[in-house]
Each structure stands twice: as structure tokens, then as C-alpha cells.
Amino acid sequence: MSERRSPTIRRRRLGAELRRHRDAARITIEAVAERLECSASKISRIETGHTTATPRDVRDMLLIYGVSGAESDELVQIAREARQKGWWHPYSTVLVGAYVGLESAASSIRQYEQQVVPGLLETEEYASAMIRAARPDFTTEQVQQRVRVRLGRQSLLTQDDPVDLWVVLDEAVLSRPVGGDAVMRGQLKRLVEVAELPNVTLQILPFSVGAHAGMDGTFTILSFPEANDPDVVYAENATGGLFLEKSDELQKYSFIFDHVRAAAMRPEESIAQIAKLAEEPLWKWRPRGSVGT
To answer: Which residues are in the HTH cro/C1-type domain (predicted)?
Structure first.
């Protein structure tokens, strides 16, 4: 069992295995629910990883499917591990815990961002300013909680087995002085520093590209170290986020990301431009146009 794997990814793997065994046994969700004297929706949510199954639930389900021995014991153990709390649990009221759980288990992350610096790359000051602006209804404590979580997530980039991060930033991200001159300058310097890590690739998609494949919005593709854990796409919007797992959806977003990064400036050019902006806050005076114009 990989140390990287979170309770979220364990629930996801467990649900997929239970669904596979149920399909192999040719038993309907309704029949399982009747045998276990529970609702069909509970079985469905267990199979989709949206709820945690107890070890007894898992053992009883596997008995119905005719699964026993070492395989049953392994899945019951996964159920026990899935009930553990992730480090982000105390902050579960202020963020989508499922995303952080998947992110903490990922071996690689590909991200296209249209509006703001991604959480894994933000400074404390930038994160605070962005959250305050985006959520004026938040109390000071709620803002601080969100900031603490974002900073905690960043350990993924420097841990012993760090995640591979590839980010394409729309030029608009660099053109918007979140928090003012000093905060934005500090954030740009932070981007340059993080880009020096061997597991981080950073590119700018300039305005001069015009229309491009990623214009529908920001998204993240999460990939995992084990072949049995398929990729997940997370598309965020003002009301929350959407997880996409179907093969055609994954292919679509992988295609989009490949086209976006191909259209973007090369990594070394991108970092040089960000470093220049960090020393000369061009957003103060430059006309609308492309990076470097």
C-alpha cells in the first residue's frame, strides 16, 4: 500500500473493487440492499466512493458475491484504512475535502488556470488576498483556515516522493495584481523559486495566442501511481467543483491540456518573463496585449 494514498483514494479503490465483484456475481444493487437490509442508495454511494463502508459492510457484501480468503481480507483492510482521517479533516467545513484527498494521493498533476495562481503555488499573502476578494462573506477565521490548508497542501511539492506538477497559466493570471503591488511581486518571485524544483513545470499562455483549446475554463487532471486508480479531472466553478472520471471525458481534457501547453511559451521563456515581471510590475502601466510586448 503506497504511503501517498489518502482515505479518499482508498474509498474510491474499494468502491471500484466492490462494484467489480458485484458485476461478476451478476447481482443488482437492489438485491444487495435487500440482503443487507439497507437502502440501494447506500450501496451505490459505497461503490462510487462517496461514502465510507464499514469493514463489516464490506465483508458482508463480499460474502454475497462469493469472495473470501485473502482477497476479502485485503478489501476489509482497505475499508479500515479508508475510515482514517486525512490531515485536512479539521478544515473539512471550508473546502472540498474530496479534492484535497485525491490531490494528496496523486503522483502527477496537470493544471490549466485562467484566473488565479493555483493553490499549490500561492504565497500566504496572495492566498489571503484572493480568498478575501472571492469570498467577502467569510469571517477572518474562515479566511485563515483556508490559507492554512493551502499552505499545508504545498508540502506535496517537496516531500520525499514529490508530486510532478505541470501548470499552464493564462497571461491573465500574471496581469491581475491580487493584493496589490507588493503582494503580487512576492507571488511572482515565488513562482520563479518553485519552478526551479525538478518536479515542477510552469508555462505562460500569452494573450497573443488568441482563441485556444482551453477557453472553456480552468481544470486539473490528477493521475495516480497505481494502474487500477484511473485519472480524475476536477473542473472548478463558482458553486463548487465537478469530478469527471469517464474515459471519454479524461481523453477530452488530456487532449485540451496537450494543446494548451503546446500553444504556451516554453518553460524557460515563461520563467524568464515571470522573473522580469517580478522586478518590473508591468501590470501597472502596460497596455493590453501579450506578455513581453
So the answer is: 18-72
